[in-house]
Design goal:
Blueprint: E1 2-4, E2 7-9, H1 29-36, H2 64-89, E3 92-96, E4 102-107, E5 112-117, H3 119-124, H4 126-158
Antiparallel strand pairs: 1-2, 3-4, 4-5
Helix pairs in contact: 2-4
């Protein structure tokens, strides 16, 4: 026996330098039940095994149903986003210069497809052609970007996701 203060502690029960390993406490059923405070470990999403509401959503499988729904929703969103990208790739957006003598066409993904310049504008020389082409291509790009943003906003809204921020 070892005397420690007012208590006598058997040698086997002392926790010290490397004399005796501390015994591990086994998990008991009543401990598990106490931790769950009356909620069945098979309850999920606030429903018990018999389908009645009133649980706390805890338990062993508490949020598994919500996680699976979120995963399914993410997969559907991914497929829809890919379909949207393909649709935008095949969409043509057209814009003209302010005088209407240059017509620029870009895809829904802002890729230039073609630029058409009138013969009258070409006769005016390089500076006039350059300014008109730049204006038409910029206008087409802005229209295409706005179309893409609107399509993406509609897609995210249909899935209940937050809207993408507006570009300045």
């Amino acid at each position: 026996m070892f005397v420690s203060g007012a208590f006598q502690v058997p040698r086997e029960r002392r926790w010290g330098a490397a004399r005796v390993a501390r015994p591990r406490r086994a998990l008991r059923l009543r401990d598990a039940q106490r931790r769950h405070s009356g909620v069945s470990i098979l309850e999920a999403n606030g429903e018990s095994k018999d389908g009645k509401a009133g649980g706390k959503g805890g338990g062993l499988f508490g949020g598994l149903g919500n996680l699976m729904d979120a995963m399914k929703k993410a997969q559907e969103f991914s497929k829809s986003a890919q379909a949207l990208q393909e649709e935008l790739k095949n969409t043509e957006v057209e814009a003209t210069s302010s005088d209407g003598r240059v017509r620029a066409v870009v895809s829904g993904q802002q890729v230039p497809i073609r630029v058409e310049v009138s013969d009258e504008l070409i006769a005016e020389g390089n500076p006039a052609v350059s300014d008109a082409v730049t204006e038409a291509v910029r206008n087409a790009h802005v229209k295409s970007a706005e179309l893409m943003r609107q399509q993406l906003a509609d897609l995210t809204q249909s899935y209940g996701l937050p809207q993408p921020p507006k570009q300045p």
